[in-house]
Amino acid sequence: MLKVKDRYLFEDDKPFFYLGDTGWLMLEKLSWDEMVLYLKNRRSLGFNVIQVVLHYALPDKSGIENGMPVYDRDTQNEKYYETASRMISFAESLGLKIALLPTWGSFFTHKIMNENNVEAFAKKIVSSFSHHKNLIWVLGGDVRGSDAYEAFDKFGTVLKALDPEHLITFHPFGRTLSARWFNSCPWLDFNMFQSGHRRYDQKMLQKWDDETDIWYGEDNYRYVEENNSMSPVKPCLDAEPSYEGIIQGLHDPRQPYWEEKDVRRYAYWSVFAGACGFTYGHNAIIQFYDPDKGRGAYGVRESWVQALHAPAAGQLKTLKSLMESVDYTKGREHNDYLSSVQKERYHHVSIFAGENFLFAYTYTGEEFKLNLKHYKDKALTAYWLNPQSGVYSYMGVIKNEDEKAFCPVKRYEDSNDWVLILKY
Questions:
Q1: How many domains does the chain have?
Q2: Whether the predicted model's global pTM rises above the 0.90 cut
């Protein structure tokens, strides 16, 4: 069972770095053999959590109410629940956690789920799934907590009372953080934020989108900073950053697509700011798009089977392995170690450091300077890590330098992000 200690997750007293994949519609769209293929693939790439929705399509609707088409599958019968339980068991055999979202948020905004029936529903899902040790409960589903606060709060309270052993979190609307509504609620164990799919210049695309003065653009690390400024401080992670292979801004097919380099940037920025993990997503996989079975959403370009092998999905295990190579629970964001001027947007340098290590991520590969006085008289072994290839390149040993400039070698391609590693 997972537990929370301060800003991080633990399993059997060992830090658990949450590396999630977004498989929202797995239960509503895949056959059993397809589920096995998907889960085995994700495990082979280093993922340890899969985010799945139990009920996505609204009842008695067209099946596309929530944007992504689903198939005509009866999700209310007992066989569907048995398949979901079987899937969770199989995932556990692979070492995977299942972050299960009981219903998509639109069930609450449409009042299908409300204060009058959430208790009965909580009893049903607890009786069906709480025996699984690899379960994480996820409330919300691309929705603001304020849209149905009383219902969500009651749901979380009842769920925690019925099933106190499993962790509960909340998946919020784009560009929001669950802590803004529920941080003080005893049922909420850790926070999620959705940094979303927009560029810096895409603040307002629809009249209903951003009814808030808070706008971080692509600076997803700012959600971690916001989370860690609250009391109590709970673990947090980016549970929906820009998906690989999805249109920038989601809705306009004339816009470019988010790529692997963007996924890496969101991952390293947020984790080095102090997040307890990161969730990846691919446009074709979130909806399990099969061109032979109907249309897709958000400009999807390939089938989900092809997208299993998209580059960023295989690159994030490098970050997971890097964090697990040290006691990251004793580290924290240390951008104060940057002695050169901290720049904005893509030029931002993220630094995560502890007593015996320092990691610095640069998206642009520009030179930066570090204050190393904290590591005075210590021999620091230095590497450049290419987060695209996962290759560590030894640089030598640094000792007795108060300040040092670092400049990675230019990669001859359209991306030049690097991680500086200093250890002793």
A1: 2
A2: yes
